[in-house]
Fold Carbohydrate ABC transporter permease.
Amino acid sequence: MSMSTMNPQAPRRFRRPSPLHLILLPIALVMVAPLLWMVLLSISTEAETRRFPPGLPSGIEWHNYTDALRDAPLGHWLGNSAIVSVSCVIGNLVFCSLAGYAFARIRFLGSRALFVAVLATLMVPFQIVMLPTLIMVRAAGLTDTLGALIVPNLATAFGIFLLRQFFMTVPQELEEAARIDGASRLRILFQVMLPLMRPTLATLAVLTFLQTWNDFLWPLIAVQSPEHMTVQLGLQTFQGAHTTNWPRLMAGTVISQLPVFVLFFVAQRFFVRSVATAGLK
């Protein structure tokens, strides 16, 4: 009998690295390289960013961050992005939950055809529906407001599909027991179904936040005044017609991506739990 079997306090042996790690490691380096290069440019001088071949900065120019915050209302743009992203996250969690539950559990005339039509919108590029969406936003009087960025993204076809697929995996016996106790459809949804799908809801919230926070094309079309710009659109002001201050632009980009990094690391376990739950189902 080995020492690890006799003594439960004995340290566990380390697992040997899988050959798959030899493939994943270069891929990880390729993914991290642009982020590292962005950070290096943000602490370089303007002359070092134009140097060829490129190299490491000779010193750390922390004033690029303070200059980026001073030369542009970066804090105001970050606040606009936070308002838009959080509003879209809340809207997707509420409306996609209602629509997904209806498609999964309620049978009505044309439900399958309507669900197929919703899925079909996933295959339509945004560039095609961009102009009709702008026309509807203008007709609603939301042009050049934060509402123009929030209302079209309050519900997405992907969110409806994701939550509908999860609802389909939940046994109907749970709902039948709740209905015997006199619970309504909405009470079953909010008190029985949604507590079971917290990892899925967290996954949808993170994906919606990332997509809305990093969106550039739609704010570029729907917003014109600087006070309504999001941070991704506001960073364009650091680029001139003939020259670009790359250190300040990269410093502003690093600042704009800090909430994304924090959210990803905090919510990473929800991604894993959501995948594991889907596998168990």
Observations:
- The radius of gyration is 24 Å.
- The chain has a mean pLDDT of 84.
